């Protein structure tokens, strides 16, 4: 049963009579996150406790084991240990389990790692009638997509592929869609872009931020027992050597540590992607604790372990952490709300330690306004026709605005120059974007940008897509996170004044005289109008350019500029 919510009583999106539609809130899908079970024999009592909780689950669910799955050097035990994981969902019709590899699954980041991870995949899928449960496949980097519901997409990446020092899939022998880091990054960006309109959950083994040991937060045990890393049972104290070893891991790092050069490269690239697409959730394992951290306007989740536990330290953005045995649970609601819970496993039971809304629904008033809005899945943006006669008019008179404010006087002007400051601050008369008439009717459906430009995506009645990009820029978002709240961010903002604010308009006019295919931007101001839906409050009054979003052909629908 659906409830019709008409903003301002009679909200209209496009010519006709349309209002927002919102379903009664319920849970669409639940995701359980576990990991880090390769250091010792699996704790069957903890696994039984998790199974007991899954039997009580009333919603469709999926379990993701986020890597470091089975003990190395004991392949004879693999079938029995895998059976323990597969039995978690064996008799539960609403559940499925998936696996993604970690560094220990790549032969502990050693030689022969590719062969080991492929053998593990064959074992897992061979026990499940060759179902594709190991993501990404064949040691490939990914991304690989699995849709858990029509509204929830998981994007799996093979993080250890990025930093493995030995054999990885290579052409021409590898059956992978991407074989270079550049191809992987481009493909991941495209996959995220193509997934707009769904909840997006990115899964991998290695986190991009952590308050744990791999993030450089060395506890006392690491200083006293350095040999325990290779052999968890080794408790021979070597305090001085241990301190040197801890310092090495904090500043140079093994292949598993965030200080490692390859790991840092992975972090930099993932940070760029998460910054480009604010509001994403990235889940991982690796560290032996449960963590929730704010990161790039989204969240980093570390699943913890049912086998091992370690303490955490201080880390920027940390919301919650605990060193207890346990797992994480994500609820995806059909109205766009996303909720997380961390559970401790103890004595054949599971106790909820922490829960919170990660993102609130954009379709409901009265929800927790402290949680950010889910800008990826907004079900109420799907129009539903109702019997009303009135439409809320769009403003017809133009408005006077300026591109941005970049004043400079005295020494600042002498050192940095006049640049295009006068043009940025010059008032111009610009029409409001009329969503009823421009491009024969437009509907906003997702955010974009995130690095320098504020971007809102629109879909026209004919299926074509357009991007509205702010004229003003914020180059500070392109800086590494450590510099964004420093004087460096203030200085780099001045770079914007070196750019002519309306250069894209001029370039488009010049290219009109050539055979070069190009987008044709037009200047508008977004109106303070309910037609913007969930985007009305944050983006009303934004001055920007509306331009085509080039797309490849789909079926019988031609692509950009009629391409087929």
List descriptors.
six-stranded mixed beta sheet, Purple Acid Phosphatase, chain A, domain 2, alpha+beta, 564 residues, seven-stranded mixed beta sheet, globular
CATH fold name of the largest domain: Purple Acid Phosphatase, chain A, domain 2
Describe the global form: globular
Helix content: 10-25%
Residue-averaged pLDDT: 84
The CATH superfamily of the largest domain is identified as Metallo-dependent phosphatases
Distance between the termini: 41 Å
CATH architecture of the largest domain: 4-Layer Sandwich
Structural class: alpha+beta
Please give the largest β-sheet.
7 strands, mixed
Number of strands: 23
Rg of Cα set:
26 Å
Question: How many separate domains?
Answer: 3
Which percent range describes the beta-strand content? 15-25%
Main sheet strand line-up: 6-7-8-9-11-10-12
CATH class of the largest domain, anyone?
A: Alpha Beta
pLDDT under 50 segments (min length 5)? 1-23, 383-390
Concise account of the structure shown:
With about 575 residues, the protein is of the alpha+beta class.
Annotate the secondary structure layout.
Layout: E1 2-5, E2 18-23, E3 27-34, H1 44-56, E4 61-65, H2 78-86, E5 95-99, H3 113-126, E6 144-149, E7 152-156, H4 159-163, H5 181-194, E8 199-203, H6 220-224, H7 239-251, H8 261-276, E9 281-284, E10 290-295, E11 298-303, E12 318-322, E13 326-333, E14 338-346, E15 349-359, E16 383-385, E17 399-401, H9 410-416, H10 421-425, E18 428-430, E19 442-449, E20 454-460, E21 465-470, H11 487-493, H12 503-511, E22 522-525, H13 536-539, E23 543-548
